[in-house]
Design brief:
The termini are far apart. This protein is an alpha/beta fold. It is elongated and about 60 Å long. Helix 3 links the parallel strand 3 and strand 4. It is 48% helix and 12% strand.
């Protein structure tokens, strides 16, 4: 029997809370365990920890989203941000603060469910809004040349260094040079990247293979 993902929602829009409660009721593999207008209210009334918390970006209690994200993660939950508008700066800041994805509230139920499942599995929930924010951001997501990106994606996808180089039409030494540059750029961005697993994680986090992200 598949493990059930527990979900909670923090939003001060009562209509939205009712809507999500209705949406998620009966979705196979998901179980709603809490709805609240603030993080304080959710944590104080928790009887069961949620695997994933849907957190509104801006709440009327005025608590900074960074603090809300931190408290939920310290409580053992992963956090999927939801918002009315795709605010690029706030999207980037939320991910930097530890959120595991970002969706606007106009997505269909199937998109929301897929995002919850992705976050619960330890991934980052990609969306067109998140991909666009990363593509435009120059701080958290390093700027890679087309060849650096090609080598990164190829190598991180599981190819050997020689196979990556062959596919890119370069020598293995040149491919290693590009990978070293990629690692250095991530280091400069404050996101140390040492191993092949780290590289694969960066590809996933930054949406390098996502169709909504144009080459840099």
């Amino acid at each position: 029997m598949a493990e059930v993902i527990t979900v909670a929602v923090v939003d001060d829009d009562r209509m939205l809370l009712d809507g999500i409660r209705s949406w998620l009721t009966g979705v196979p593999g998901l179980r709603l365990v809490g709805c609240a207008c603030t993080v304080d209210e959710l944590l104080d009334g928790w009887r069961e920890r949620a695997d994933v918390v849907l957190l509104d970006l801006v709440l009327r209690d005025g608590r900074p989203s960074a603090e809300n994200i931190r408290r939920l993660r310290e409580a053992g939950s992963r956090v999927l941000m939801i918002s009315v508008v795709p605010d690029r700066d706030r999207i980037v800041a939320a991910i930097a603060d530890g959120a595991d994805g970002y969706l606007t509230k106009d997505h269909d139920l199937s998109v929301l469910v897929e995002a919850i499942e992705e976050v619960a599995a330890g991934g980052t929930a990609h969306s067109p809004e998140l991909a666009f924010a990363w593509a435009c951001d120059q701080g958290i997501r390093p700027k890679l040349s087309p060849k650096e990106r090609e080598v990164l994606v190829g190598y991180a996808s599981g190819l050997t260094l020689k196979a990556t180089a062959r596919r890119a039409g370069i020598t293995a030494n040149t491919a290693k040079y590009y990978l070293d540059r990629v690692k250095a750029k991530y280091q400069d961005a404050g996101r140390p990247t040492y191993t092949k697993i780290d590289l694969a994680l960066r590809v996933r986090e930054d949406g390098w293979m996502h169709p909504g992200v144009p080459p840099t």
